[in-house]
Fold each of these.
Amino acid sequence: GENVEQHPSTLSVQEGDSAVIKCTYSDSASNYFPWYKQELGKRPQLIIDIRSNVGEKKDQRIAVTLNKTAKHFSLHITETQPEDSAVYFCAASWGGGNKLTFGTGTQLKVEL
Amino acid sequence: KAGVTQTPRYLIKTRGQQVTLSCSPISGHRSVSWYQQTPGQGLQFLFEYFSETQRNKGNFPGRFSGRQFSNSRSEMNVSTLELGDSALYLCASSLEGSGNTGELFFGEGSRLTVL
């Protein structure tokens, strides 16, 4: 089955700096790669996603890149703000329904 | 539009008991998935239901089961509870039903503690 590895497990940055979280996946059939943000005590929420026919996608301060050959994808957050502090999960799916395999999460802390 | 609703929000059980958790998806969403969230393992997929049929299944023992009703509401059941079943159980619904994977809308979860 699919396996998703996520690094780093914790990340601390200064406000205004950029943050990068990386994930690798094992199943070359995977074609959908979302990122979810979970604030403390709250439900996970989708922040951005990318499908395998696209190499990069951007939404304001957030961008995701995908390298299908190397089977890895990354989340980039620019100009970080304190409200970006949360746990971020990457995930992968090969389709055939809404089954996601999640990475183990990255605790991002944005310090003032 | 109301979000995904899960009940109960908190519950405490003892080993050997069974538990049933309920999930009401967003109106119009026919896909309902269940995930187990623990500090060490992150989010682990349990199963997905679409139009009352189990469409996908994760790698959990048979003690974990689920079902979906004609109104898309879903329940999951865990029998013969073990200490390791203590976790936050998240339900998620999705509008996507064509077979592609779509955005998941999560509920707030049911936190199960097994003593």
Amino acid sequence: KNEVEQSPQNLTAQEGEFITINCSYSVGISALHWLQQHPGGGIVSLFMLSSGKKKHGRLIATINIQEKHSSLHITASHPRDSAVYICAVAPNTGNQFYFGTGTSLTVIP
Amino acid sequence: DTGVSQDPRHKITKRGQNVTFRCDPISEHNRLYWYRQTLGQGPEFLTYFQNEAQLEKSRLLSDRFSAERPKGSFSTLEIQRTEQGDSAMYLCASSLSAGPFAIYFGEGSWLTVV
């Protein structure tokens, strides 16, 4: 069983739609990261959360520590948002990050 | 450029050959991580260093794999006697320490074993 589960695995949306990607984890954490990976490219960190909510432009990330759940929202989606979005957690114990398998998002014009 | 850099970005090698990847982390970061990623999967942990000490190795890291960080700065990941199953992207990342610190990734090194 993976320590981090993401849903959906794949998501196709029309330009302008509101998008939600979910992440659930099973370990105690000190932080949760949302990452973005474009095809063939490296990984860019979007957010690091330990509580509450963060917003950056059209992106919003929330976390509920009690429920061990986080969501990434994209408002007014655009084709350039097409990428793989990965959830990763830094556990309280241990020294590595655990990653979800990613959500592949395609936004159609 | 003050980000994490990896070299080479792409490597095609014949089965049985040895390959080496290099990672230069952000200079003040004492944690350095190696991950492997195959198509459609999230990154899988291979190993990490705290300064020059290799503190944890995944069971994915067979005896054909070795990683070093000799001076606590750059790191190398060597794969000996490559197999086709080694074809993947090898990602390097760095952070200040464990816990709630941001992690920064390199662009990755793509390995194709033919």
